[in-house]
Every structure is written in C-alpha cells, then in structure tokens.
C-alpha cells in the first residue's frame, strides 16, 4: 500500500479533489465541443459561458456589490504591486503602506517608482511576527490610498479585523493567500486583488475586484496596464488564461457545494486550531512564529529547538507523505499551508505526526 500524500504547499497549492476530477472528465471534450477547454476560442460562446459563470460564482460567494467590477488578469499579484500605483498614484501624491511581511515590502518598492510612499505601520523590527494594532498606525495627511496585505504566507500572520481608521482613504488589500477563506465586507475596500494559486485555483490568473467609481488618476499608462482597458472588455481585451479561469470556476463551484464561505471558514478554523493546539501543548518543543492574536488561519509557521532537529522533522515528515512543510527560504523553520482545499483529515494526520515526533525526539 502506497504512502498517502498530504499537500501543504504554500502555492501553487492543493486544489479540491472534486474540482480536479471534474476537469479530468471534461479535459478532452468540454461541453460536447469535441475539444478541450484549452483549445476553445476565447471569443466562443462555450468559453464565454465559463468566463461568465466564474464571475457570477465569485460575486455570489463574496457578496460583491453591483458597483464593483471583477477582472481576471495575468501577471500574478506581483504585477498589481506596480499596476496599482501606475494607475492611482500621482508623482507628487503619497500612498500609505502597512508593511507586515515580504510581499507588502515588495509592493512598497514598486510604488516608489511612481510617487511618494509612507510606511503607516510595520512589524519588521519583530521579524514580522505580529499585525500592528490600530494605535500603531500613523497615516499620512491625505493618502492617495492605503495598502495592506491581509495574510502573510511567509511569517504566518493575518489581520483578524480591518480597523475603521483605514476607511479614511481608498483601502486596497492584497488577499492572495486568504481570499474566500472567511467572509469579508467587500464594500470596505476600493480594490481587492489576489493571485489564484492558493485558494482560488491554479497559477496563471489574478482576480481584481475594483469599485467602479474609483477612477484612475494617471492617463500615461500602457494600454495593457490600465484597469479601464480590461474593465471595458470584461477581461477579454486579449486572450485570457482560459484554462486557469475554467479551473477557478470549478473551485468556486466546490466552495458553493461546501455551503459557501461561512462553511469553509468554520472548517479552516478547525484546521488551524488543530495545529496551534499541537504547538501549544508541546511544552516548547514547537514554537509558533506568530504572536498571540496575529496567527494566520492559512499558514501555520513554527520552529523546533535547533536546525538539526528541524531537518530531521522535515525528513521524517517527507517519508510519511507530508509535502511542502519547509519554511520559506528567507526564514527557515517549518510552515504548514492549510488553504481551503486542504482536508481536515490531512491536518489531523499532521498533528498526530507532530505529537509522535515530539515523543520520539524530546
């Protein structure tokens, strides 16, 4: 009997088995066309149905108001680091950034190419182990927008709530690693963006949810990097990543079949508590990176007593079928990414393995 595989990769990450099976069934013949969905013209009625259903499902699951548009773009969330200020930051204006990890640092770096930036708060001095409290946030006088990253995959921290003080300017959120994992009030944000490869589907498509009346301030932007270009063409200005959007639709349908975001969020909380309890009950054998109150429900990061024990842990885990548990190369340690599609049974197996490893190596 082969060893089962438990996928804890940080991204690209686990996809729902049901979504993969549906894609497998339709791979060679989608909708009786005699072609794979990857072979269809993006201008065809058969593909357009996929495209429209993906948007409809996302709107339904996230309760996206009508005054927001949904875009399917390419370039990953990293392109949004530049595309956002390119459209919305005048050379003499200032954009505020709350820096809670590597990705928000990269976002700031891109924004400095187009205008002024102000770090409204950061937890870098504590190796990004917490989310700044509302009292720590010092906004500039009149920011063009405020940017934050809702979940930090590398350091395992997550905003538990978004302070009301952030509503003083258009609020932008990079939700790449926790979108659709819990309910959020979309109307609190001027724009949300997310690479798909953690909770929404495979790599290759980036979702942008943008308030229609938040108009760009810069005109001298290349055509392909203007939000208006894609909004007017309903994300079909050029050939979109059709198969990635098809898979996005399958994943969204899976979330709906689970009972929606509320139901998925309840399971996500169970999964996270399983692992945080295993760490807490280890009497210091495992130590979580995130400070209490800032723990991520998506990425559980932890360390062991020394590098040799960590290497042994990862080696034994790999032998037992646990994939992707190594921490990010910039911080080391261990990380279990438990996105929506990671089943509770996989998390239970990991918690049991952690307990057993502790007993054998204390």
How would you explain this protein's 3D organization?
It is built from 9 helices and 14 strands. With 362 residues, the protein is of the alpha/beta class. The protein folds into 2 domains: 18-257, 3-Layer(aba) Sandwich (Aspartate Aminotransferase, domain 2); 259-361, Alpha-Beta Complex (Aspartate Aminotransferase, domain 1), CATH 3.90.1150.10. Strand 6 (151-152) and strand 7 (157-158) form a beta hairpin. The longest helix is centred in the last third of the chain and has 20 residues, at 261-280. The protein is globular and about 60 Å long. The model has no long low-confidence stretch (mean pLDDT 97).
Task: Kindly summarize this structure in a few lines.
The protein is an alpha/beta fold and 362 residues long.
Quickly list its features:
2 domains, globular, Aspartate Aminotransferase, domain 2, three-stranded antiparallel β-sheet, 362 residues, alpha/beta, seven-stranded mixed β-sheet, Aspartate Aminotransferase, domain 1
Instruction: Give the overall shape.
Output: globular
Integer count of domains: 2
Number of strands: 14
Q: Which structural category fits the helices and strands? A: alpha/beta
Question: How are strands sequenced across the largest beta sheet?
Answer: 2-10-9-8-5-3-4
Query: How would you spell out the order of helices and strands?
Result: EHHEHEHEEEEEEEHHHEEHEEH
- CATH level-3 fold name of the largest domain: Aspartate Aminotransferase, domain 2
- Strand share of the residues? 15-25%
Question: How would you sum up the major sheet?
Answer: 7 strands, mixed
The CA-CA distance between the termini, in Å, is 30 Å
